[in-house]
Amino acid sequence: MLTSTGEVRPLEEMEIEIIRFAISHYRGQMSEVARRLKIGRSTLYRKLDEAAADDPGRRRNDAN
Questions:
Q1: R_g over Cα of the chain
Q2: DSSP state of 27
Q3: What's the CA gap between 23 and 2, in Å, rounded?
Q4: What residues does each domain of the chain span?
């Protein structure tokens, strides 16, 4: 939750890390990931697309 300098990491950064962890944990079952995170599937995909736009070297399918 903290940076190497002891500062709190940005929420957006932690959120995408949690989403990627959940995708891995639930073996890419996106409906299950969304259900467990209590968000809609469309929200899940939107957040992945936004994260990919922020990191052009990473595509949605690279998240799992």
A1: 12
A2: T
A3: 23
A4: 11-55
Quote the pLDDT of residue 24. Answer: 98
The terminus-to-terminus CA distance of the chain in angstroms comes to 21
This model's pTM is above 0.90: no
Full 3-state SS string of 3-18: CCCCCECCHHHHHHHH
Look up tokens 């990627």; give the residue. 20
| 41, 34 contact by CB (below 8 A) | yes
- Residue 55's pLDDT is 82
Q: Which fold has domain 11-55?
A: Arc Repressor Mutant, subunit A (1.10.10)
